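ESCALATION

Customer reports they have been waiting on this structure for their group meeting. Please prioritize. Original submission:
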Amino acid sequence: MNLLALRFAARELRSGVKGFRIFLACLALGVAAIAAAGSTAEAFRQGLASQAREILGGDLAVTVEQRLFTPEERKAIEGTGRTAWAVAARAMAQAPSGERRLVELRGVSDSYPLAGQVTLEGGGALAAALAPSGGVAGAVVERVLLERLGLRIGDRLLVGELPVIVRGVLVQEPDRLSRGFALGPRVMVRRQAVEDAGFLQPGLQFVETARIALPQGAVPTQARKALRTTIEDRSVRMRDREDAAPGVRWLIDQLEYFLGFIGLASLVAGGLGVFGAVTAFLEDRKPAIAVLKALGAEGPFIRNLYLTQIGVLALLGVAIGLVLGAAAPFVLGGLVPADLPVPALFAVYPGPLIRAGAFGLLSAAAFSLVPLARARATPPASLFRRDVQGGLKLSVETVGAAIAGLALAALSVLTAPTPLAAGLMIGGVAVSFGLLWGLGLLAAKGAGRVRAGTRGALRMGLANLAGPRSAARTAAPAIGLGVALLASVVLIQSSLLRQVAEVAPKTAPAMVFTEIPGARTAQFDRVVAAAFGEKLTTENYLRAPFLTGRIVALKGQPVNRKAIAEQERWAYDNDISISAIGPQPPSADIVEGKWWAAGYRGPPLLAMEVDAAKAGGLKVGDNVTLSVLGRDIEARIAVLRKVDVGGFGASFPLVLTPSALEGADLRHVAIAKGGKDQETRVIRALGRDFPEVNVISVREQLEAATELFDRLALAIRGAAAVAALAGLLVLTGAIAARAQARTREASILKVLGASRLQILSAYVLEYGAVGVIAGVTGVGLGCLAAWPVVTLVFKADWAVDWTGVAALVAGAALLAGLGGVLASLHALAKRPAAALRAE
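Update from on-call: job pushed to the front of the queue and completed.
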């Protein structure tokens, strides 16, 4: 690039950025969205990393379910470092008034916590709050439990059969995030109190966890591997502080990619704005380019002259986007500091900003080089005739545009957490963009054919729509892409909300009962029936034995986890739910095989969830070895069935014949459908006769899920609106680029006798039609994207929010029509004589 081109470029840049405002806005918007998503995600990752030890509660965490650590395991754990012990179980908390509520009971040792601090309302020490008084255990509880049960500090309550006195309100535990989802408010007492109350008996559902603080200089991963050589039992789970909250990390990765993808889609949609702005800029420079070429300037000089200007302005747009994106996490932290779900460390992180900058520059190159190639290749005579719309030839610019486009797609795939999903999404955007572009061209051609049979403003509007610079060719693809993203988010949200708020309450149980004593099941059924005030049938009540076990061998061979698809390893990684049922249960959903007879007494048979069986390469007739109740049972698969976890039925992945577990004292679980009043009566009745039975209110969980999903969906819809805003910027750019031509057209039409109302109507019809085309097509593409997500990923019923769909189409048409009004008002503002003399 020679110095003369740089000097010319510097002189032209002195005139400012007029004509490039849309160019800058489109680039800045997309870059800001990508940078904001990456910077916010990195702030959360760094927050997790900086507090990993506090989140885990130590350097290592070792967990076992449904049993206590053996003396040998306890000795190995204590030999690794300083240790704090904790047990957790679910139980019903009952106030003196008789009100009951499911809680998460946790018992901790005196050494707890090893890292971080337990925060109580008003301060105070945890040890003092948990100290027993008069033979009654001290407890700290969450504020919501006090409100639900009408209690105050100093009041007593019964947790299962454990009497406790409330000594404090629990605000925060340092290891809360690492323990995952809780079904009820938390109650914390001393570990010994939980054990003395009988919560840790064999066969009950409880968890014991040891948290370990390693000696100075010890490496957590090496310590975990060394401990694993001593404790080989795979049912004992181990984590170190590098993996303190794996589920949260996964969620952050996926959310970052989704929001970043929306930003990338905004860049692609805004790319048309970049294309239009560069085209309009070069069209405005036609006389200068023609003079330079006539005076002997060669193509490379013209390219370097305007490539320098476009490059400088692209850097400015990217810089604006990076500043906005880098500031976004600080704004988020300032607006909702108390509502952030995970710890965040807000700072300026170069990595996400560099990635967002690369996306912006590649997008600018991909959409700027093509119009530059046309201007450079056009001969001086054509330029003087104001023709820069010549055909494209293979050149440095077109090759550069193609490379930039491919690099944009490659960068998207390489920086995504799941490259395959990224490739599918990029492909979907490319296909959608091409489809929208093609429909825009078809609409323009169709308008040209239809206009012959029309008159007045409609004929003028159709003529504009069919013209070579129709907004249908430029603005429709960008607006349609934005509508498609918004439509997919709205449709996914409406289907899932309907599943949670309408379908699930009808198909799922209202209550789940656990820890029902196997020897008293008949009495339990009578108590529930009396509280319900109606006869119990399979339509409103189901009860079955319950235990957990592990699949240890398939067809006589030990389970090879690596040979099983990752999404189905849930059936082979950990203990899973098992029941023992004789007669075929209602809604068995048998896919293959036949259920055994009610009184079957032969060798053990098994009904298995069909997807888990296929993942293990199993079919009817194959043998599966289960480890249950301390012994191995080999059972032959008799039935493969679908299991609807959220439905009202026997939703156990594994069901054995009752004779296989004969003699075992199994606890039962039950599910029931009923109204809110029946739920209240059942909870009170069980408090008198079955205090050890836990009652999980599914209704409350669904209400909480609906509220959480609403909040999340609102944020995602706001992010998706960024793409729609990019489409509006393109529309604005198309209007601005054609402003001079529109003024000339309006002046000619007025001279020929057209009224202001006719001209205004023509423009509104043209742009309104563009909005309808983009809106309808975008909604269709949004349906195509949302349907597989709803039905295949979330396995929910497909439901269309017709009100939201209509609002999107109407909004696109209205905003585009408003653009037509603005375009016409600008064109009509000048007098015909002045406008035509300027030509």
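Sent to customer with the following note: The CA atoms of residues 371 and 754 lie 35 Å apart.
Escalation resolved.
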